[in-house]
């Protein structure tokens, strides 16, 4: 017997009585809940603590305008408009949308974007501070 492990006597066991440690045994580690860790890292408080980046917000607005223009262009191409007419019309609509966007700059921010959420949170905290 070795540290309380093994046979008391090797007689009749057809073994030499030599005791080895089990190399295949791995002690159980406490399981980590990765989902909760990820949720903790992605909480709204961490998003709201970031400073809003005006350039990114402007870029997102421009992307939305260009998306609308591409849809408009495709609709005109389906109706078999001349390419020069399409270019002129798209330029006209682009100018109109850009002017509207400047007028309505912060009227309805998209709160699905992190920078827009941060800007809204910043406005809210300034409002409460007053």
UniProtKB/TrEMBL annotation:
Database matches in PANTHER family: SERINE/ARGININE REPETITIVE MATRIX 2, SERINE_ARGININE REPETITIVE MATRIX 2
Entry-linked InterPro entries: CWC21, mRNA_splic_Cwf21_dom
Biased composition range(s): Basic and acidic residues: 30-42, 52-61, 118-130
Region of interest called Disordered, as start-end residue ranges on this chain: 1-61, 108-130
Organism whose genome encodes this protein: Hemiselmis andersenii (Cryptophyte alga)
Family: Belongs to the CWC21 family.
GO biological process terms, semicolon-separated: mRNA processing; RNA splicing
UniProt subcellular location: Nucleus
Keyword check for Ligase: no
Protein name, UniProt field: CWF21 domain-containing protein
GO cellular component: spliceosomal complex
Pfam family, one: cwf21
Keywords: mRNA processing, mRNA splicing, Nucleus, Spliceosome
CWF21 domain mapped to chain residues: 57-102
Composition-biased stretches (Polar residues): 12-25
Main location (coarse class): nucleus
């Amino acid at each position: 017997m070795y540290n309380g492990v093994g046979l008391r006597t090797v007689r009749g066991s057809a073994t030499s009585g030599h005791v080895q440690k089990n190399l295949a045994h791995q002690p159980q580690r406490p399981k980590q809940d990765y989902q909760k860790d990820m949720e903790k890292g992605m909480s709204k408080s961490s998003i709201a603590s970031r400073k809003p980046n005006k350039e990114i917000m402007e870029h997102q607005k421009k992307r939305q305008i260009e998306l609308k223009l591409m849809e408009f262009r495709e609709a005109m191409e389906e109706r078999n408009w001349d390419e020069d007419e399409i270019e002129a019309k798209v330029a006209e609509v682009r100018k109109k949308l850009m002017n509207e966007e400047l007028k309505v700059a912060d009227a309805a921010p998209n709160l699905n974007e992190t920078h827009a959420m941060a800007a809204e949170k910043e406005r809210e905290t300034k409002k409460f501070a007053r």
